[in-house]
Every structure is written in C-alpha cells, then in structure tokens.
Specification:
By secondary structure, the protein is α/β, with parallel strands linked by helices. It folds into two domains: 22-254, no CATH class; 266-464, 2-Layer Sandwich (Alpha-Beta Plaits). It is built from 17 helices and six strands. The protein has helices at 2-17, 26-49, 55-77, 90-99, 102-107, 110-119, 125-150, 156-161, 163-192, 198-202, 205-227, 232-254, 266-283, 297-304, 306-323, 346-362, 395-411; strands at 287-294, 329-334, 337-342, 380-387, 417-421, 462-464. A six-stranded mixed sheet has the order 2-3-1-4-5-6, with helices on both faces. α3 runs parallel beside α12. The N and C termini lie far apart (83 Å). 38% of the residues are buried.
C-alpha cells in the first residue's frame, strides 16, 4: 500500500513538472506566479472583508457576464476568432469593477475566458489563468481608485446630481484598469521573449485611441446601469453595432498586414512605397529602401520545426519595429524576406542597416517552444539603396537596386550589409527570389565601382558602392 502511494505521488510530481508553465524563462515565470498569487490573495481577502453584496449585486454581475458571453458568441458565429485583437470586453467588465463589491472585479474575466477556451480557440491553461488574474488585478485596482475618489458604490441618484465628478473619476479608474492590464501582459510577454519591443506590445497611437473608445463606452455603460440595470437590454444592440464597426476597421487593417508578423504585406507595402516616393521627390529629401533576407533560414525550420521558425520571424519583426521609427514603412514579402523604407541619406542608411544586422546577429531568439531555453541563432543579409534628394526614380527601380544590393551581400559571404546609391538602370539576372537578383552588375569593374570590405573577421563587412 505504501509503495502504491509513493508511486502515485511520484507520478503526480512528474505530471506537475511537465506543465508548460515551467518552460518559461525565470523572469517571465516569476511575473506569472506573482500575478496569479496576488490575484488569488486579493480575491480571498476581499471575499472575507467586503463580501459579495446582496442578491441585486449578484443579479447585475450575472447580467453583465451574460451580455459579454452573448457578444462573444455573436462574434464567433460571424467567424471572428474569439479573443481577437479587440473584443470590447472592457465595456462589460469595467462597470462590474466600478459598481459592484470588490470580489466581482477579480472574477470579471472568468466567464468570457472560460467561454473562449471552450467555444473559441483553446489556449495553454497557464496563459488563460494569467490573463484572468491580470485583468482581475487591474479591475480591482481601478475599482479601489474609483471608490477612493467617489465613495463606495454611488447610488443612481448620485450619478444625476454629481455626473461630471463621477464620470471623471470613472474615466480615471478605467484608464488605470487598461494601463495596469496592458503593462502586466506586456511584461510577461517581453520577459518571455526579450527581443519583443515594448512599443509593439503596448500598441501604437491608433490602438491607444481604440482603447480610449472602449474605456469611455464602459464608463457610459456604468452610468446607465447605475440608474437602472434594465438599461443593459437597450444598450446591448448598440454595443454589438459598435463591435461590428470596430471589427470592420480591424479587418480592413488585416487586409493590409501580414498575418504572421503584423507588418505590412507585400502589396500594401509597395502601394505605400509609391506614396512615400512621390512625397520624397516632391520635397527633395533622400529616401532609402532596405531589403533583408535571413541567412539559411531553412535550417532553422528543419532543425527546430516550422512553429519555432514562425516565432523567430515574429521576433525579427519586433526587432525591425524597435530599430526603426513609428512612421517608417516595414513589410514582409513572404518567407524570410523583410523590407523597409525610411528617410535617410547614404550615411544614415548605413548606420541603421548595420544596427539592425548587428542586433539580429548578437541576440539569439528564445521561444516558448524550446524547453532547453537555448536561443536560435540567426543572421541576416541586408541590401540597401538610397535615392538622393536631387534624383528621380520609380518604385520598381528602387526595389531592383535594393535587390541587387542584397544579392551582393549574399555573394560576399552573408551576415553583412551592402549599400549603394541609385545610380542608373539596374541589370537583373535570372535568380529565384521575391525579386530577381542582379548578379553581375552590382559592384562590377565594368561600372568602375569599388567595394570596401572590413578586414576584421569577427565583424561582418559593410559593402559600399560609390
């Protein structure tokens, strides 16, 4: 009997040690565990000291949860992936945090995440638990801030008598909720994959605007329900319509972006390049086009699998976002080819391209799917061309010149930058790739151009054309 108990205990221990959460890097694991424990502790403490209110509070909580699940199901039936980029759940969870006792704020995200796990796209269990805990802590903090500013659960009459003050307090609390939740989620992701930039995780200006709309709609819902919970019913169709309109905007943006990396896809990038080129020639400013190809990336897929390869591509996209400016155009042409255009002269473009190459070469990419924690080493070859301020050219010429520079970087030994000003037509050779590589024309003696190669073997060269 004792032996059987020991065997069962050993099996249980081995099962726990095999949980995917333990494969996280230690800093990310620490954040996940701290947030989960903090949320559990806050729930236990608030349940003891604050309680769950009365039957009306429970009924309002159920009504909000039912409305949230109804919206999720409508989205699922419309073929929108559950848990999409924006699902407007704050519209339903924020009023719970502001109007109901504290324990409900910590439980606000449980129903919709459980529903998404069951009816939508299943995720790793520790990620779902962390998401619920992070949202719960954020709403708990927002609810406490609101009560400190406005008093404990203001009744409906107070919203009519002191609307301006209560709405201001609710907006501040809602922004606190959104900010805390975003930082907690971003911290866990960034610590799991340090190459991911904070800028990419926290969102751009457009996403911050959408978050503001979501918070303001949640505050409006709070004011309505404070008057009467029955007002949820007439507000529900309006929220669904708002969700549909924001979804349409998301789908429009998705048609322009690469689904894997979130960068512009090839067609959208080329359209934007033509606009940027017209602007640069009109204002007589130099503009650079950079074409980058990951060296021997097929070996990464063959060695680690395509899922790891996909995560590395996402990390490469994050590196590009971090090293370039918000208004620079970055795209993925498919496979392991990336492209960017930015305002820069020859010297500036050289510095930017070399900084990107060095960042990729010196930072192994660690993914959640690699249990040993050893990163994937990747290098990149980069070709750059620059259209000087006093010259005119078409988008196809710039791309062909950048492609020729990339081919020159590849043939010179890979893991290096080749940069050249646009100087005359580019002859192209038949070579497989997104663009045909110009094999013989770039850097040839016939064009009286010389190449400067750095002699230091530990630092890949920058090849320049004068």
């Amino acid at each position: 009997m004792m032996r059987l108990m020991h065997v069962r205990q050993l099996r249980g221990l081995l099962a726990v040690r095999s949980w995917p959460v333990w494969s996280l890097p230690r800093p990310a694991l620490a954040v996940v565990l701290v947030v989960d424990v903090a949320a559990g502790t806050a729930l236990l403490t608030s349940s003891v000291f604050d309680g769950y209110g009365n039957a009306r509070d429970l009924a309002v909580f159920v009504a909000f949860c039912a409305s949230a699940l109804f919206c999720l199901e409508i989205a699922r039936r419309l073929d929108e992936p559950t848990g999409a980029h924006l699902d407007l759940m704050t519209v339903w969870t924020l009023p719970i945090a502001l109007l109901l006792p504290s324990p409900f704020a910590l439980l606000a995200a449980v129903p919709d995440n459980a529903w998404s796990q069951w009816r939508g796209r299943p995720s790793l269990l520790y990620r779902r638990i962390f998401t619920v805990a992070a949202i719960g802590l954020a709403h708990f903090a927002g609810g406490q801030a609101f009560r400190a500013m406005a008093g404990v659960h203001p009744p409906g009459d107070e919203w009519g008598n002191h609307a301006a003050a209560l709405l201001a307090a609710a907006m501040i609390a809602g922004c606190c909720c959104a900010a805390i939740n975003a930082v907690l989620i971003a911290a866990a992701i960034q610590l799991s994959n340090p190459t991911t930039s904070w800028r990419a995780l926290l969102g751009d200006r457009e996403m911050l605007t959408i978050y503001g709309v979501e918070v303001s709609t949640g505050v409006t819902m709070t004011a309505l329900v404070a008057q009467s919970p029955v007002l949820i019913l007439p507000a529900l169709p309006a929220i669904i319509l708002l969700h549909r309109s924001l979804l349409h905007r998301q789908l429009t943006a998705a048609a322009r972006t690469d689904a894997k990396t979130g960068l512009l896809n090839a067609a959208a990038w080329q359209r934007e390049l033509e606009r940027e080129l017209d602007r640069a020639m009109r204002k007589r400013t130099p503009i650079a086009v950079m074409l980058m190809d990951l060296d021997r990336f097929k070996s990464v897929n063959d060695t680690h699998g395509h899922l790891v390869g996909d995560e590395v591509l996402v990390s490469i996209a994050d590196v590009l976002r971090a090293e370039l400016r918000n208004h620079d155009l970055i795209g993925r042409f498919g496979g392991e080819e990336f492209v960017a255009t930015f305002d820069a002269d020859l010297e500036q473009a050289t510095e930017i391209a070399e900084r990107i190459r060095r960042c990729i070469a010196t930072h192994p990419f660690v993914t959640d799917r690699m249990a040993d924690g050893v990163g994937v080493a990747v290098t990149a070859s980069i070709g750059v061309t620059v259209l000087e301020a006093d010259r005119r050219a078409g988008a196809d010429e710039l791309l062909a010149a950048a492609d020729a520079s990339l081919y020159a970087a590849k043939t010179a030994g890979r893991n290096r930058v080749h940069i050249a000003p646009l100087a005359g037509p580019i002859r192209t050779a038949s070579e497989p790739g997104r663009f045909r590589r110009a094999a013989a024309s770039v850097g040839s003696a016939a064009r009286s151009e010389h190449q400067r190669l750095s002699p230091a073997p530990e630092r890949p060269a920058i090849v320049e054309q004068d």
